[in-house]
């Protein structure tokens, strides 16, 4: 429930940072707060909660506190976990808005000022504001949930209509201080304490703000020892998280509304999907009895989630979506359907169908121009509920002539997809040799496989970084003839370079440059 904002705060922001054995990174995190363009001395309180560190982290906290005694508060406490450390910081926070930046991460310099400006304009509408997450160090890329910032517009998000706009991180969120009076972090959770704290607020008010202008920089450690990186090796991630967060969220929603809103379902399924990506749970993590309990809990939760929510997950593979549907819909585990006209196959359930075979990914990794032919290499993904391929082949069409070129293929042991020990999908590495004599005029190359006597044609071609053709056109010399080669999601196309094709390709090139110039303007 939204409450009137009390303006009797000493600072605009309180940054509460739980600190535990992060000496190599801590100064960089603190310095990112000191350099905020909103003005650190005038506007920011930094609360460093040393959660029983055994390295130099506590001393680093004290060193900064001595430099900025009016702005930095240091709390030294016995180790109790990140939730207890954050709660200790909340208790002394004197800022109007509160953030929980992790001790090895950073904020870009204009983050606090951008968030503050948004809050001033929308203070009566939202209890929290979110900024996009970008990884650095081991990988440099945006977080997969950054799609919600695609408009590049700061705005209020209504989750009743934008239910897929998941917010699970409290580190990249900024909370009204008064909203935290009745909501703290659940100390029984080692994982998902962020998600639960945020969900408590969103169940009361399903609106929050997004501010693309700010940035939370998440350190993906090379040492791979952060909490999230190691979650799959801890019992709490499997059992406790489901019990104290997943089922709490589902039950709380049903208790409040009589049904589970889509935004709660989407949030829960987003959290659950990581469990389906564990190939095999080690017995050192869960005993056989605990594993049985976990799997029952996992599917009990999934059975409370609508089919469309599962199928709309952006980071859940097609084979896992069908696998989940096949269990959820049992004893009707789907009927295999073929459409020879569209050269496709899928599993049909009474009220829905799952991912089509043509949509599975085919990766192109290498194309070598030999003396008399082209050597193509790649890998094709196969969902093992479909009949195993009798063969993989290239369909090469030139005018009214069609050639079939069989591929040599084998399973790639490094790309096998399992859940609970069950093999669901594999990549088949393939090699094909195409004689130059098959090329003439305009030549199309499609990638197909034989599925129980039915042809399946791949419509999801992806070039790997080492593949020489980009998406677009490139001029190649094949057997002393020039061709324009084009890669699309459905095929490779080679067009012999003639005066007409040269003019057409030159026109396309000019148009692309014009569009680029117009875009830059």
Automatic annotation (TrEMBL):
Stored InterPro entries: Glyco_trans_2-like, Nucleotide-diphossugar_trans
EC identifiers of the protein: 2.4.1.212
Keywords, comma-separated and alphabetical: Glycosyltransferase, Transferase
GO MF term set: hyaluronan synthase activity
Xref: Pfam families: Glycos_transf_2
Keyword RNA-binding: no
Keyword Aminoacyl-tRNA synthetase belongs to the record: no
SUPFAM superfamilies hit by this protein: Nucleotide-diphospho-sugar transferases
Domain Glycosyltransferase 2-like intervals: 14-182
Protein name, UniProt field: Hyaluronan synthase
């Amino acid at each position: 429930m939204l409450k009137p904002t009390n303006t009797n705060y000493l600072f605009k922001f309180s940054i509460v940072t739980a600190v535990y054995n992060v000496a190599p990174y801590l100064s960089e995190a603190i310095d990112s707060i000191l350099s905020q363009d909103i003005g650190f001395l005038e506007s920011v309180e930094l609360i460093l909660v040393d959660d029983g560190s055994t390295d130099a982290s506590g001393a680093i906290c004290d060193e900064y506190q001595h430099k900025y005694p009016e702005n930095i508060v240091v709390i030294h406490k016995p180790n109790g976990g990140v939730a207890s450390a954050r709660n200790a910081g909340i208790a002394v926070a004197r800022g109007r808005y509160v953030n929980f930046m992790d001790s090895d991460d950073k904020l870009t310099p204009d983050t606090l000022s951008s968030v503050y400006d948004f809050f001033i304009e929308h203070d009566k509408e939202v209890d929290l504001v979110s900024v996009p997450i970008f990884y650095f160090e081991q990988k440099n890329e945006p977080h997969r949930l950054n799609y919600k910032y695609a408009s590049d517009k700061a705005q209020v998000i209504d989750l009743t209509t934008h239910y897929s706009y998941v917010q699970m991180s409290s580190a990249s969120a900024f909370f009204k201080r008064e909203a935290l009076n009745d909501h703290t972090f659940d100390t029984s959770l080692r994982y998902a304490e962020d998600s639960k704290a945020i969900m408590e607020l969103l169940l009361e008010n399903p609106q929050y703000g997004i501010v693309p202008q700010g940035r939370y920089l998440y350190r993906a450690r090379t040492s791979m020892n952060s909490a999230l990186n190691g979650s799959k090796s801890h019992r709490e991630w499997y059992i406790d998280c489901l019990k104290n967060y997943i089922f709490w969220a589902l039950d709380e929603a049903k208790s409040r509304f009589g049904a589970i809103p889509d935004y709660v379902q989407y949030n829960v399924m987003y959290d659950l999907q990581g469990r389906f990506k564990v190939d095999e749970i080690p017995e050192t993590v869960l005993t056989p009895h605990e594993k049985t309990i976990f799997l029952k809990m996992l599917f009990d939760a999934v059975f409370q989630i609508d089919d469309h929510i599962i199928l709309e997950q952006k980071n859940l593979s097609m084979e896992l979506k069908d696998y989940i549907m096949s269990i959820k819909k049992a004893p009707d585990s789907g009927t295999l359907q073929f459409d020879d006209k569209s050269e496709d196959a899928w599993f049909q359930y009474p009220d829905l169908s799952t991912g089509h075979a043509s949509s599975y990914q085919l990766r192109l990794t290498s194309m070598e121009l030999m003396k008399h032919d082209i050597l193509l290499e790649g890998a094709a993904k196969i969902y093992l509920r479909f009949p195993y391929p009798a063969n993989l082949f290239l369909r090469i069409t030139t005018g009214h002539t069609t050639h079939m070129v069989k591929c040599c293929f084998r399973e790639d042991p490094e790309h096998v997809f399992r859940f609970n020990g069950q093999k669901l999908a594999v990549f088949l590495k393939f090699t094909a040799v195409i004689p130059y004599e098959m090329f003439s005029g305009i030549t199309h190359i499609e990638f197909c496989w034989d599925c129980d006597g039915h042809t399946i044609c791949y419509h999801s071609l992806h070039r790997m970084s080492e593949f020489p053709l980009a998406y677009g056109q490139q001029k190649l010399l094949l057997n002393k003839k020039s061709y324009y080669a084009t890669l699309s999601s459905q095929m490779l196309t080679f067009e012999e370079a003639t005066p007409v094709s040269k003019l057409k390709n030159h026109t396309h090139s000019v148009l692309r440059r014009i569009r680029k110039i117009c875009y830059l303007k």
